[in-house]
Design brief:
The protein has 240 residues and is an alpha+beta fold. It is built from three helices and ten strands. The radius of gyration is 34 Å and the shape is elongated.
Length: 240
């Protein structure tokens, strides 16, 4: 009969113990904590420079809006929104810029007189925005406005600039009486917005004002307030 070798058995037990201890230590090793890094928001900033090219038409506070490419705030041949009607008749852009389809909006603090310029900056963080609208009333008119809507910004890189020379539009919401009661600009000082709308309520290109000298007896405007297209020079530059 073989004798049991105690020394060999003891060595084997020791080896198993060491192995178990090593496994136990591995289970207690500290686990590296995964720290999530917040992504830095991508900010796009645009500088909108506006020059009033007219001789006698103050431009109401310039309204600027960023939105999706499927948004257009007016179209020739279609009815004006209430916000556009208020802007075109009085120069008040508050309701126009409150449109729920707009992502970010900005406005100049005051009117831009004839021959002068203003700069409006607007910024937006990560989003699917790809278009811009700029609008303003020609103050010495009944309901003339100017600007552009839905300008594509998707290909405008940082440092790039694009310039538009804008036409005047007639909102079609008020008769062109050019009377002291209805023209809000300094040439007349009227209230501006009127109740109701004209029967032919749709946006058209504006034919220009008809002065008293031109034969409109109700007009308080003179040749100083006449204008031809274009009326504004608008340059948009992507700053970041």
């Amino acid at each position: 009969m073989k004798r049991f070798n105690k020394s060999v058995y003891s060595i084997a037990l020791a080896a198993v113990a060491i192995s178990l201890t090593a496994c136990s230590d591995n289970d207690n090793d500290p686990v590296e904590e995964i720290v999530e890094v917040e992504p830095v928001p991508v900010v796009s900033t645009y500088e909108v420079s506006v020059v009033n090219l007219t001789a006698g038409q103050p431009a109401s506070p310039i309204a600027v809006a960023l939105h999706g490419s499927d948004v257009a705030l007016w179209s020739v041949g279609e009815s004006s929104s209430d916000g556009l009607a208020l802007l075109a008749e009085s120069g008040d852009n508050t309701e126009f810029l409150a449109n729920e389809n707009l992502l970010v909006t900005a406005s100049a603090e005051g009117p831009t007189p004839p021959g002068e310029s203003v700069v409006v900056s607007i910024s937006i963080e990560d989003n699917d925005m790809s278009a811009m609208t700029v609008a303003s009333m020609l103050g010495n008119t009944n309901d003339a406005f100017t600007g552009f809507t839905g300008m594509d910004l998707s290909t405008l890189e940082v440092g790039d600039s694009v310039t538009h020379y804008t036409h005047a539009y007639d909102a079609g919401t008020e008769a062109n009486t050019e009377s002291a009661d209805d023209v809000p600009g300094p040439a007349a000082g009227g209230e501006g917005p009127s109740e109701g709308r004209e029967p032919h309520d749709f946006v058209t290109l504006h034919p220009g004002v008809v002065t008293l000298e031109g034969g409109l007896s109700s007009s308080v405007l003179t040749n100083d307030q006449r204008f031809d297209n274009p009326v504004l020079k608008i340059s948009v530059t992507r700053m970041e």
